[in-house]
Amino acid sequence: MRRLAATAAALVALAIGAAPAATQQTAPAPTISPGVLTVALDLPSEGFQVGAVAGSQVVFARGFEVDLARSVARRMGLRATFVNSASFGDVVAPGPKPWDVAFAQVSILSGRRAAIDYTIPYLQVDQGVLLRRGLGPTPRTLAALARLKLCVQATTTGAAVVARTVRPATRARAYADVTALIQALSTGRCDAVVYDAPSLAVLRSEVPRRVGPMAGVIPTAERYGGVTADGSRLTPALNVALRGLLDDGTVTALTTKWLSIDVSALKPLR
Amino acid sequence: VTHRRRRVAVVCLVAAAAAIVLAGPAAAATRVTFVQGEQNATVARPGDGLADAVAALMAGPTAAERTAQIRSYIPPRTQVRSVSQAGTVATIDLGSRFVAGTDSDALLARLSQVVATATAVPGVRSVRVLIQGGVPLGLFPGINATVPLTTRALRTPDVARPRPTPERRTPATRGTRGAQQRLADLGYLLPSGVDGQPGPATTTAVIAFQKWEGLQRDGVLGPATLARLRTATRPTARTRGGSGRRAEVLIDRQLVLAIRDNRVVRALHVSTGKPSTPTPVGSFSVYAQFPRWWSTPFREWLLWASPFVGGVAMHQFPDVPVYAASHGCVRVPEANARWLFRFISVGDPVRVLAASR
Questions:
Q1: Short-list A241, A216, A238, A218, CA closest to A227
Q2: Angle, to 10 degrees, between the axis of helix B200-213 and the axis of helix B174-185?
Q3: CB within 8 Å: B141 and A178
Q4: pTM given for the model
């Protein structure tokens, strides 16, 4: 409670532009390295996070979640450093974490709560359906989608949605990462891919001539949250920082900067 | 036919490259790759070895090369952190400026420059590109840069070949037919396009007409356009040439005039190089023709391509706005690209004019 109050005071100070003073007044957050917020990423994901890694160290990164993490750290009076998770599975696996928080497009699922903690959500997304170039009639229903050669990234929400909701005639091909997934789509090995809608929209805007149109979204209304180790004492401070960024429009501004594609205009497939 | 044409083109390219190399200094030379239009362009520089080649690449094209619209997509002042070689694999560690910006065309083009330049060094077969000492993840759209890259891989198409857009039938109207007949009489539309149905062929013909006449370029048969159609005359060639076929590219009007025996057969709506990558002005001739041409730097298919200098070609493109928008090429809409490809032949003159009025 006291930490909350202190952080709230810090927010007020930040708002009037006295950030250094605020840092001094805030009780040091219990991070792994003093003064540093160690943030785990799961590179790459277009729009959200791309960069360069040396071992597990992220030496260069940019994207929505990278800017978000930096803003969170600044609000907490900390400096952000980034590490790359070996896999998405590692981020959500139980056990101690070599980082303070992960921002890696992790959907808040009640089933995972036994293993990890979540921050408050910072983004709500649906699954998108991106078609290959030159595909015949655009599928408008889940039944039409089920007749296509579908591809997903393994262990993602997209993979789960295809298996549970779309139930294609032939099993969806699963790829290890999104680069391989989009490669398969642009070479025509897949008719359509199912993946987080904002990412697909960003990807399409980057390489518009390599892929076809978005067919629509499969509404899942997942909410992305930061991941902390189970029982982490840092979570309340992270939440205060995130709440501040949501309330003052920072998150919306970052969405516009990095994910400036209007996925709300896409029709839901049912 | 495709194979023979391709061979002709390869011979021309090799000859051009040889000419450039021969023109360079007699001392040890490296080959450095930039971009001209839609393809990589290789030039000679003094020095030898990987480090010299990378340094020359970062230094960019000379003033003379820039005049010929040979350019580098590598941001100025990009830091070279280290260059090394182990066996046949070169490792080039670059500062984060190398991945500045989010324009995927520019990111892919600069990557192709580094890979082509390094693999031109004897003994180097592939290149590992590092950013700030790290392996790039997702920084080059569509390219897996976690492994050493080869020129051969970049030259290999990984995008499905575009297919013709299916034609949509729309109801014919008498007004449209009348306007189409005028457009055909004036050389903007093929006689076969006079079918009474509005569509892309008519729209591009209307835009070409509006461009020539200095009207608003909206592709719509509005009152001003219809009024001018009644009194307009066929466009005329801007320069005098010999008998036979040739083309004029009019940059100010964003038009191509297809000319036979000094008479304009057709005036076509095109989009030339945008201000940062303009189409080179001058007298050239078509040196090859490719029904399908893979752009190595930009990783995309160019259909019905007639290059006339380096990687600068007249070619079909899905996106042909009414203004200059290309990497230096002359983009032709699908409705006219194949016609132009068949009209013009290898050896035919192409004159690019900045001002046509």
A1: A238
A2: 50
A3: no
A4: 0.83
